[in-house]
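#structure-requests
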Amino acid sequence: MSLSFPFLRPPPFPKANISLTDFVRPISRPEKILTDNDIQNLIEKLLQRRVGGNFWAAPLPKNPQKQSVLLIEDLTDEAFFLAIAKQGDLVILPDHQDYAELAESFKKQGCVIYSGLFDPWSLLDQATEIIASGKTALTIDIGLIARLGHIPLSFSPTARKFFSDIFTSPDVIILALVRQQLTSFQYNDIFTGQPISLDQAITQLSEWRSLIDSNRAIKAACGIAWWKKEAIRRFLWSGEKKRLPMPQKTETALSFLKQKQEAIALWPSREPKGLRKAIAQKEAQLYEVEDGFIRSVGLGSGLHPPLSIVVDKQGIYYDPNQPSDIETLFNETVFSQELLERAQKLIARIQSAHISKYMGTGADKALNFPKNKRIILVTGQVEDDRSVRLGGGAVKGNLDLLKRARENEADSYIIFKPHPDVEAGHRKGFVPQESAEKYADIIIRDYPITRLFDQVDAVHVWTSLAGFEALLRHREVICHGTPFYAGWGLTRDLGAIPARRKRKLDITELAAVTLILYPRYLDPVTGMPCSPEVLIERLIQSPKAKMTPVTWIRHFQGKICAAFRQVMINNPLSGKS
């Protein structure tokens, strides 16, 4: 039988804009001849990474006792399987009403029943033997995986004539079979359309698998604003057909938790009352979700969905009061040369393309600052932002931050740049011009912050991500609060640093964790999870935010709020009649 359906295929991420042929297509002859040693190395990588077949589907329920597995996809062999089934066997059936009566018969014989899609690689953990029927892609996938994992494999009478000569052959024939299956196809990078090697295809699939596996425990997500729900569902997809529930109430969220150690994902700024306490009592997990560090073209407060998020199983990166995944990565990562080289290239690309969290636009010509003074940039923030509330320390607001910067830089030329969300009229933290000018020499608003980094000597921050972006450009950074990048030997720290931060890092190591290991990225073109390199190139290609009816409404709402704020400053209500 010809194995014409590809074993290596991409997961069907929700609403992704790709087809199977974007990743893999049949070819008449391989472009490169692979040796037996090459094939053996690929087999070892497949076994290690567990990609191929429907690897994104849910794993079979764990069973401490290994068992015989009966895979039934054809009712023709019903009598054969009922005759050989014994108590404790795992019987896998299609999730279809036609098989309901057969399932009951197996239950009476003491068998364990599983219906529906499953990760075929999970058979390696619990099957002592596999007996299969049918002649579908699933049968082919399981046949390959069983032979690669050295699990005894046999077939029902009907399936035997199709597969017995292939899958029960000696190992030397199996090697040829794997070569035929893997090299009968051309694999492509779905983001660029360019051909890639088999090894690269396996690596790409394994990255998607790692993401899916990390989401398996998530049963619902809370606090997700309506305009970002679809994007978050893509980031948190666990391979299931049903959409991830996104309840707004604690009681509803808890109803989705069926076992200990299952998880609720939470956008913490919209946390339902009592959720944390209830999850702890249920011995479940809470994964906190936030915007990533290369977020989008356009502001989050402008209702532009994120193209990058972080999912933290311990805490969240901006809260120095508890451990977080990013802190653990900083402390414990063993940095390979390959990872460091990748981080160095990312830093260089970010520098050359002036990449920033929100990719703002504006005039980019150099400004005229005094030549004989130290030039200081002070970045404003949203004053009720969670990073400020949790890690802001003694600083009381943007005006106080400016004052503290001036106290530290008495003779310097100080630039104050308000936060874009505040400037857009969406968030708290506005500093009136005359107040800011008591401490700042100039207030700069509509000018790309990455261009400012090139023209200043140092940057004073509260907890702003701008400090990290400045470090990437080799600027001195003074932290008045406790951002995630403080305390690792790269910043001048005026805020309290947790004792947990005990390692010294260089900027390449800091960037490797912050940009590669910790966040997740989504390609705006294909809708597929991607690398930071892919997203950066997409942002360079489309530097302007795409406006939808929702974002236009939000834009004008911000304009009205900003205008009203200015009126109130110019004509304050005295309260007199």
